[in-house]
Design a protein that fits this description.
The protein is an alpha/beta fold. The chain is built from 10 helices and 8 strands. The chain has a single domain, classed as Alpha/Beta hydrolase fold, catalytic domain (Rossmann fold, 3-Layer(aba) Sandwich). Strands 1-2-4-3-5-6-7-8 form an 8-stranded mixed sheet, with helices on both faces. Helix 3 links the parallel strand 5 and strand 6. It starts with a strand and ends with a helix.
Length: 268
């Protein structure tokens, strides 16, 4: 179980997957989620790329120092991990909070990002996003970890998927609980969400960018992905019909086909 002791003062758990001579793809996950939630993507990506998944500070098997955390703090963690792994530049893919981290990293360290993918992400915490993320904070503070994951799950997948795939949904919930963040780490990550704001700097993104969102995303609805895509030069926006916040888990075959095809086009 490789863990990197970083100059930012945290130990991050990480895994390599895939072909040793492929270009590196670094996947950054969202609030309260460990890197294993990327495995439905890694299973396909690893045939063409070297894939890195990891647990952010406050999640999974990584350190969970007392918060609050900020997105810039988590960007510094990611850069320190890239340095530790000897990755000079990479294809960067971020989901939700991971998307906030990824877009900030692409702005502050453009030389490290070959292409950028932002899934179910947002540019600035305002309006609906602020209400939703503040509700997550209350779920945790008033209900504890188990209640947090149970309540949040209803926002992560659409009702028809939960009903049709009820047993699978319960399995996903149990895996979330089994790999849950500690209270301090999850609270710190939620604070990072609440202070996120890159709306005035999106034009500084230089990497080719794909923005995706589920049509039925109830956490960060398509409006927020359109804000991202409108602000990033030449960004491509894909809205998945019937898709949820976790569309990459809901329908990994479609998600992987779209994102891998886009990556292939960027490489000529």
């Amino acid at each position: 179980m490789p863990t990197a002791a970083l100059s930012t003062g945290v130990d991050l758990y990480y895994e390599w997957h895939g072909t040793s001579d492929g270009p590196p793809v670094v996947f950054v996950r969202g609030t309260g989620a460990d890197g294993s939630r990327w495995l439905p993507q890694v299973e396909e990506y690893q045939h063409r790329y070297r894939c890195v998944i990891f647990d952010n500070r406050g999640a999974g098997r990584s350190s969970a120092p007392p918060g609050p955390y900020t997105v810039p703090m988590m960007v510094d963690d990611t850069i320190a991990l890239l340095d530790h792994l000897g990755i000079d530049t990479c294809h960067l893919s971020g989901m939700s909070l991971g998307g906030a981290i990824a877009v900030r990293l692409a702005i502050d360290f453009p030389e490290r990002v070959t292409t950028l993918q932002l899934h179910g992400a947002w540019a600035k915490t305002h309006g609906y996003a602020r209400m939703y993320l503040s509700l997550l904070k209350r779920f945790l503070e008033e209900g504890g970890l188990d209640f947090y994951y149970e309540a949040a799950l209803l926002y992560l997948f659409p009702p028809d998927f939960i009903t049709r795939e009820y047993d699978l949904t319960l399995e996903i919930l149990q895996r979330m609980k089994a790999n849950s963040s500690p209270m301090a780490g999850l609270a710190g990550q939620i604070e990072a969400n609440l202070t996120h704001d890159e709306a005035d700097r999106l034009s500084l993104v230089r990497a080719p960018t794909l923005v995706t969102v589920g049509e039925l995303d109830m956490c960060l609805p398509p409006y927020f992905s359109r804000e991202l895509a409108d602000g990033i030069p030449d960004a491509e926006l894909v809205v998945f019909p019937g898709g949820s916040h976790l569309f990459g888990m809901q329908d990994p075959a479609t998600f992987n086909r779209v994102t891998l095809d886009w990556l292939a086009r960027q490489q000529g």
